[in-house]
Structure formats: structure tokens, C-alpha cells
Amino acid sequence: MESLKECLLARANHGLISLSVQTWAAQNFGLTFPAVEEAILDLNLLPARYQRNQRSLSCGQQLSLFRSKVAVIGCGGLGGYIIEELARLGVGHITIVDPDTYEEHNLNRQLFSKLDNLGQPKVAVAADRIKEINPAVTIVPVQKAFTGKNGKGLIGKVDVVADALDSIPRRLELAEVCEKCNIPLVHGSVGGWYGQVATQFPGEYTLQKIYSRCSGEGGIEKDLGNLSFVVPMIASMEVAEIVKILLMEGSTLGRKMLYLNLLDTEFTEITF
Q1: One pLDDT digit (tens) per residue for the chain, 272 residues
Q2: Is residue 62 domain-resident?
Q3: What is the pairing mode between strands 16-17 and 256-261?
Q4: For residues 84 and 96, what is the distance between their CA atoms, to the nearest angstrom?
């Protein structure tokens, strides 16, 4: 009987393994879909779903993404887009944390919200969505509110954390937990036509500097709301920062914040 390696090599088409071959291999060798994905990437082959990545990401980098673990704290506007983009890229393990269910006011911008899942837990809906998009991704849905007390248990074993929260006190708690766990944190926030992105590495205390003069629960989003086109733009910039950290490529926003004013098409970089 052919080994998994022999089967994959024999069925590769110009270095690509189709979804049908990957599914067949999982069934015939009694393996999970993620296990077959790792075997494909280990052979320097590429699942065909990623073929449009390959001019920007090598097979080795794709394998690094597959073996990476990211936690997304918040599964609303920013969180939904971050989760989906990470999954489509092939990040192999995503923990999603959010206590809420979908409400009608989420429909204007939250990627996973729709009429027939109003009232359903956001993390459960997200997990089901990702299964339909990329079965090689392991999703860990946690229907809990992130706090300083439970934070270490939720993120202690991941490589990068994405901030998709809408509460300043919670963001600062998240930043503190990431500092204690020695984990990079990518921050994003949206309000009306405006948004900001920053990356905090251990020892930088960037979020504490950003919010040092802020008081109260929420930021400008409480007054200005959230527009549908601003949310995915900030989320995508967060994902770009996450990927650069995971692959140790390019220049990040460490010790910086990028502020976006889409009403006047202005981009301002602030250094801390």
C-alpha cells in the first residue's frame, strides 16, 4: 500500500494538491484534514486553495502560518474580518473569545451576522463559518468575556493576540496580560470614518500610552458608531501586522500607531 507521502507526491499537479485529493487522503488514511494539510506542506507542496498566495508566500512560510496560533479577542466587527482573513490565509489555529450573541444593530458591519443567526453566539457562528471556508483550520470558540483574571488561561499558549474589543478598560487588561505572557498584541479600533492600528511587543506598553488620557468604558465608536467600510480596512491592517510577526518579515507598527482619517483620506503615523 502506498504511503501518504507517496500518494501526495503522485497526485501533485505542478506542486499543488487539490481539495479532492486532500479530502481523499484524509478519508483513506484515517487522518484529520489539518494532519493532511501539514503533511502536504511538509513535502514542500501546496494545497491548491493557497495557490494565489504563492507569489508572496513560500511553502515554508505557508507551513509556518499553519503551525501558528493566534487568539482573536472579540468576534464582532473587527474580529469577524480578522478571523476570516486569517483562516483564508491558512493560519492553522485560531482561538476566538467573545461572550455575546448577534443583535440587529450588528447587521450593518459584522461579517458573520445575518438575519437567521440573530440571537446566536458569535463564536459558534464564526466556528461554523470557518469550517465551511477552510477545514484545515482549528477553531477554538470561547463564549466568555475576556478579563484580567481569565486572560492568561485564554491566550497563554498563542503566538500573537489580536485586539478586536470595544472597551478601553478591557483593552488595557488585554495589554497587561499579553505583557505578562510575553506575547505580541496587535491593536485596532474604529469610530465613524476613523480608525487606528498599533502593534505592541513585550516591554513597549503601547496601549497604555495610547489610552493614558482616556477615561470611561468606550472610545469614539460610542459616539460615532462604526461604518461598514472602515471596519474591514482596519481589520485587514491588523491581519497584515499579525502575519508579519508570525513570519518575521517586513516592518511592523511596533512603538507606533497608524491613525486613519478616511473622510479626508489622511494617514498619520504616531511614534511612542
Answers
A1: 689 999 999 999 999 999 999 999 999 999 999 999 999 999 999 999 999 999 999 999 999 999 999 999 999 999 999 999 999 999 999 999 999 999 999 999 999 999 999 999 999 999 999 999 999 999 999 999 999 999 999 998 999 999 999 999 999 999 999 999 999 999 999 999 999 999 999 999 999 999 988 766 666 677 788 999 999 999 999 999 999 999 999 999 999 999 999 999 999 999 99
A2: no
A3: unpaired
A4: 11
Three-state DSSP state, 119: coil
CATH number of 159's domain? 3.40.50.720
Cell of 128: 461554523
Number of Cβ within 10 Å of residue 207's Cβ equals 25
| CA distance linking residue 149 with residue 2, whole number of Å | 51
Residues spanned by the domain of 17: 4-57
pTM, two decimal places: 0.96
Q: Report the C-alpha gap between 114 and 96 in whole angstroms.
A: 19
Same-domain check for residues 107 and 200: yes
